[in-house]
Amino acid sequence: IMGTRLAVGLWSDDDAAGERAVEAVLGEMRRVDALMSHYKPESQLSQINQRADREAVRVDPELAQLILRAARLSELTGGAFDITYASVGYLYDYRAHTRPTDAEIAAGLGAVDWRHVIVDQEASTVRFSRTGVRIDLGGIAKGYAVDRAIAIVQDMGIVHASVTAGGDSRIIGDRFGRPWIVGIRHPDDPDRVIARIPMVDASISTSGDYERYFDEGGERYHHIIDPGTGRSAGELRSVTIIGPDATTTDGLSTSVFVLGPERGLELVEKLGDVDAVIVRRDGKVLYSSGLGEPP
């Protein structure tokens, strides 16, 4: 679902209630995907991309609110997070190993600016201030869907659960009296981990250059696009963010990846309620002060 593997684990004294909770999670993830997918032409997000440069497009308040939340993250990160990166990002095809030319990137960069997206909360509409703008919520939507899924199981009375969508996880409660253990994978080997994080009532998200990519001429072209250049961000291999909710950790893992190690850690320390594990291109692992480097 949402182009990735979904995993749900929960603890219930009633088998039937537990099964209903799992099915409710799957249903909610599919609902969010149908609303926010840029692959589905009938989704509201796709309708925005097709029409918002000509007219205000009416959307569900839920989608309008998430776009506004993305805008606040753009402001917080100085534009490192920007859903309009898709104005250039759509030119990459990682399966076909194709990328835009320098001229195509230059032509599209003018449309990359989160301020081009105008949301009218009262009318629940979205429009673009210029042509050529596209948006993609891939850097925040999976985390949001995980949060929505957790909210649903909590409403059903579940107090111990883990929901994971790709690199985004949120955990409530503990696991049979002990913390849930989440491994951070090695960028070059999915069977190895660089760290294991014990977690209770927290979220964790990882963004890496190994998720969607191709290599060409000794360079890796991956899906984490720097909005300032229209090209793949190149200083890091992976970023893991630990924080209170998955929407936040999802968006920040992308942001810190784009910012790079120094500015990324500076942002994490400034925020205070999140921590980070960063893998540089040379393989060195950096930890925010809230974690401390393990012995």
Low-confidence spans: pLDDT under 50, at least 5 residues? none
- Decide which structural class fits the backbone: alpha+beta
Q: Which percent bin holds the helix content?
A: 25-40%
* Element string (H = helix, E = strand): EHHEHHHEEHEEEEEEEEEEHHEE
Largest sheet, in brief, is: 7 strands, antiparallel
**So how many helices?**
8
Shape: globular
Looking at how many chains there are and whether they match, the oligomeric state comes to single chain
Provide the spatial order of strands within the biggest beta sheet.
1-5-6-9-14-15-16
What is the CA-based Rg, rounded? 19 Å
State the total count of DSSP E strands: 16
Mean pLDDT: 96
Note the gap between the termini: 38 Å
Characterization of this structure:
The mean pLDDT is 96. The longest helix has 22 residues, at 15-36. A hairpin with a 2-residue loop joins strand 5 and strand 6. Helix 1 packs antiparallel against helix 6 (141-155), helix 6 (141-155) packs antiparallel against helix 7 and helix 7 (246-259) runs antiparallel to helix 8 (261-271). This protein has eight helices and 16 strands. The relative contact order is 0.14. The chain is globular and about 55 Å long. The strands form five sheets. A seven-stranded antiparallel sheet has the order 1-5-6-9-14-15-16. Strands 2-4-3 form a three-stranded antiparallel sheet. A two-stranded antiparallel sheet has the order 7-8. Helix content is 33%, strand content 27%. The chain has 295 residues and is α+β, with helices and mostly antiparallel strands.
